[in-house]
Design brief:
Blueprint (H helix, E strand, L loop, with lengths): L2 E6 L4 H12 L3 E6 L13 E4 L4 H9 L3 H10 L4 E4 L1 H4 L2 E4 L12 E20 L2 E15 L4 E7 L2 E7 L2 E4 L10 H5 L2
Parallel strand pairs: 1-2, 1-3, 3-4, 4-10, 5-6
Antiparallel strand pairs: 6-7, 8-9, 9-10
Length: 187
């Protein structure tokens, strides 16, 4: 039976939808989820993806709708959540520089400084065992606050990908989807 992955229809959702669909082939089904969907049920999905987007908009959206409760229940059920760029900030325990006005569920033992890697640029680096080209857009900086957080990737000396329990956080977008294999493997 195919695994079902819900992708929030917010921010740059088309990019991640096509990258993950191409990467997983026919093994998974992907569904776009509307922000105002009142029928969300954690039993309908094996994984959730929160695409890259502006952190302040994410903060307002996720914490002022039923999404906050949905995401907490989803995590408690032991299912994985993939966060990219601005959506990662909504999970950070400590909101650092340039995070004024943002709110967080405070579920991931990291500190996040917003817009640390300023600008729009592509870089080549190693994620897992793969050398790839990834896209950064005003990416946040991650600082690990506890040993339970696993670092998945660095760019120069900065942490750019983490795993904390069932939450996978990436500060960049990988158009090949290869960087997100850890998330896909958890489904």
């Amino acid at each position: 039976m195919n695994k079902k992955v819900g992708i929030l229809k917010f921010g740059q959702f088309n990019d991640i939808f096509f990258a993950l669909k191409k990467r997983s082939g026919d093994e998974m089904e992907f569904f776009l989820l509307n922000v105002d969907d009142e029928t969300l049920d954690i039993n309908d999905f094996d994984g959730i993806v929160l695409p890259r987007g502006k952190s302040l908009e994410y903060s307002n959206l996720l914490l002022e709708t039923r999404w906050a409760d949905f995401l907490k229940k989803f995590l408690l059920s032991g299912k994985p959540i993939l966060t990219i760029c601005g959506s990662l900030i909504v999970f950070a325990k400590d909101l650092g520089e340039q995070c004024e006005g943002r709110k967080s569920l405070r579920l991931v033992d990291i500190r996040v400084d917003n817009n640390y890697l300023n600008g729009f640029f592509d870089v080549d680096f190693v994620v897992g065992h793969c050398y790839q080209n990834c896209h950064f857009t005003d990416a946040p900086k991650i600082s690990v606050l506890s040993e339970r957080v696993e670092v998945l990737a660095f760019y120069q000396k900065d942490i750019v990908a983490i795993k904390d329990g069932h939450i996978f956080g990436y500060t960049f977008f990988d158009k090949t989807g290869m960087a997100y294999d850890d998330f896909l493997d958890c489904l």
